[in-house]
């Protein structure tokens, strides 16, 4: 299986969890990693044909990012807007992503219990991630359970190190193993 990891962090060099995840995933055969901030620069400009070619070569796409204001950092939104175009991802002739798989790999600053109804953030992670699930549906991708590391800013080194192996397992797991699993793999 060919996997494309799109890492969307404003400054990966200052990250703890996302940087370690990016580095670990970069060392795995069959996985291509892209630091979208480095690729796009300050202007957040992508070359659609380059990005689309990478998507066409992948069976599974992983969007890796810190959860910012209940969504992704702006660079991932810019990538989506500039790459998932009519005629490529949807609309007439837009079937290039049909059947491919999408996994989200996310870090949050808050604890898991703060992402549920009646709690601090008022909604569950599933609810917050609905736009990504709908985007996958719109372009014909199979939305697989996201991987979420809560309280990533806690600096708990044991939890962070354990999350690396868990993330690799999650990202490389055959699709059949996701059947009847909880929607979010929270770590």
Automatic annotation (TrEMBL):
Pfam hit, one: Flavodoxin_2
Keywords for the protein's UniProt record, in alphabetical order: Oxidoreductase
GO molecular function, one term: NAD(P)H dehydrogenase (quinone) activity
Presence of keyword Mitochondrion: no
Top-rank taxon, per record: Bacteria
Domain Flavodoxin-like fold: 1-169
InterPro entries documented for this protein: Flavodoxin_fold, Flavoprotein-like_sf, KefG/KefF
Ranges in coiled-coil conformation: none
Cross-referenced PANTHER family: GLUTATHIONE-REGULATED POTASSIUM-EFFLUX SYSTEM ANCILLARY PROTEIN KEFG
Protein's recorded name: NADPH oxidoreductase
Natural source organism: Photobacterium frigidiphilum
Lineage of source species: Bacteria, Pseudomonadati, Pseudomonadota, Gammaproteobacteria, Vibrionales
């Amino acid at each position: 299986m060919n996997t494309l990891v799109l890492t969307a962090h404003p400054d990966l060099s200052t990250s703890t969890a996302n940087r370690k995840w990016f580095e670990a995933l970069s060392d795995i055969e069959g996985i291509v990693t892209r630091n979208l901030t480095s690729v796009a620069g300050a202007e957040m400009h992508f070359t659609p044909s380059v990005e689309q070619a990478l998507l066409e070569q992948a069976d599974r796409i992983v969007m890796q990012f810190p959860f910012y204001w209940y969504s992704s950092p702006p660079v991932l939104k810019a990538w989506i807007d500039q790459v998932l175009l009519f005629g490529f991802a949807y609309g007439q002739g837009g079937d290039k992503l049909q059947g491919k798989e999408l996994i989200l790999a996310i870090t949050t600053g808050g604890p898991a219990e703060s992402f549920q109804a009646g709690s601090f953030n008022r909604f569950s992670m599933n609810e917050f991630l609905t736009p990504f699930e709908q985007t996958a549906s719109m372009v014909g991708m199979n939305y697989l359970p996201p991987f979420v590391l809560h309280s990533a800013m806690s600096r708990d080194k044991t939890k962070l190190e354990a999350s690396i192996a868990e993330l690799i397992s999650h990202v490389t797991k055959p699709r059949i193993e996701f059947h009847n699993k909880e929607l979010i793999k929270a770590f």
